[in-house]
Amino acid sequence: MTFLPDKIIFCLSFLTALLVANVSGPQYVYPTFGPALTKRFDWSALENSLVSTATFVGVSFSGPLCAWMVEQWGIQKTLRVSGFLAMSGPLLLAQTYAGRLPNHFILCAMYLMVTGVAAAAAYLCALDSQSYNFKAYRGMSMGITSASLGLCGFVYSQIDDVAFKNGPNNESNTYGFLMFFAFAMAAGMLLGSFVLGPIEEASVPDKYAVQRTVSETSHFLSNDAAGEHVADHHHPNDSEVVAPLLPNKDLNFSGMRFFTHPVGFALFTSLFIILGLGYVFLANIGSILLALSLHPRANLQHVLNMHVSLFSVANCCSRAAFGTLSDVLQRRWGIHRLWLFWMAALGLLLNQVYLVTFVSTTRDLVPCTVMFAVVYGIAFGVAPATTAEFGTELFARNWGWLLYAPAFGSQLFNVLYGALYDGEAHREAAHICRGSGCFRDTFLIGIGCSVACLAVISWAISRQNQLKLHPSYQYSSVH
Question: Which helix (H) or strand (E) element contains residue 138?
Fold first, then answer.
């Protein structure tokens, strides 16, 4: 078999994974239609907070279930089931919006949770396919796939802005948009079910297979067995290969061993705080904009779509750039991916300080939106490749369990945001809170959490440096 067809197969698999990822981000699309639901059903801030995070909760808490689906059913069957479930959520929500179904906020949250479960399973299929087929450039392939997911909000907010602005006063046709979104998600996942999956090693020329096998590496921990593995398969172009994270290349970490490992614990903490706070900002961007001064002639939905688009584009670029950068830093200079999480936590801390100190108008909020998106993208863009360092065979399982971190984080911070917002509105004797005081207390607490996150990541980096210098201690600590 010639190499050209194999290159086409890999290219088709790569691009299809990007498409599946791009239709697997309903949590980033919710801010586009969420305020319309709140207005139609007159939800309180706390009720809106619970509904706005329902999709993210479905995405995150379904991690182990999605991993089981991928392991037991395979990628193709999982994508077909996901397509059906993904279509059902927005369809039911559209009928609720049209008044054909009861509009209790718990029912709407359940529809969104089902959509989140389907999206999580589809995205895991895309990541699993990329992890298997592009081992040599895992950070880049997973980072770009994660970027495609992050771009979902931009794509659909722009579609809403252009194609569904036919209501009175240039308002969005929310019902039509929800129907379109349902079928778009289903179509993308169904297409992926015919393409994605592991590409047999036998179809790739030996020299390329050797390069991918040798390059399935990480940096932090070193040992003699790993050194012999690299030496036995040395290639002139393999000068950037570094030692694997685990003490034995055949060892896979999962369960409690994964979470009690310094890197695993730091990963969980980072995703809990960085993604939790980042998603709360995105999910409640509508109420934050309402609280700030808006130009009298400005259209709130248009300003909202602009911020969602900004978040989405910055998130996408961040995932792709830092996913690739994590490979470059690790392969060329031996800088582990944890340092990028440290940088993200520092950026989150500084951004929240700016938010609670200087933001008083919607224009002031623009840099905040971009920075929240960048740190969010770093965490989600680098985390899959870091998780895969604990063993490719158990990647789906570990990633599924790790998604509990942002699920708990988003719920905790979102309930906190809703309660504090309602409390401030009650003090103002108004249904809609006005002023930066509506969200200041939430992000002041977030500043403290960011400091704690920095401390945990710093401890993990220090701990791993010790393990690298003392391999014998490393073995005793993991068994």
Answer: helix 138-150
3-state class (DSSP) for residue 306: helix
- If you average pLDDT over every residue of the chain, what do you get? 80
Question: How many other β-carbons are positioned within 10 Å of the β-carbon of residue 343?
Answer: 16
Rounded to an integer, what distance in angstroms lies between the CA atom of residue 391 and that of residue 27?
Answer: 28
Q: What is the pLDDT of residues 209-234, one digit of tens each?
A: 434 433 333 444 333 333 333 333 33
Nearest CA-CA partner of 381 in 318, 319, 315: 319
The residue behind tokens 């991928």 is: 70
Count other C-beta atoms under 10 Å from residue 232's C-beta. 8
Alpha carbons 388 and 396: distance in angstroms, whole number: 9
Kindly give, in sequence order, each residue whose CB lies less than 8 Å from that of residue 28, ignoring residues fewer than 6 positions away: 149, 150, 152, 153, 282, 308, 311, 312, 315
Residues 133 and 213: their CA atoms lie apart, in Å, by: 11
**Domain range list for the chain:** 3-203+240-478
pTM: 0.69
pLDDT for res 1: 37
Least confident of 169-183, 383-397, 446-460: 383-397
Amino acid residing at 11: C
DSSP state of 297: T
CA of 110: how far to CAs of 52, 57, 114, 322, 475, in Å? 11, 10, 6, 34, 45
Phi, psi of 433 (to 5 degrees): -75, 145
Assigned CATH class of 3-203+240-478: mainly alpha
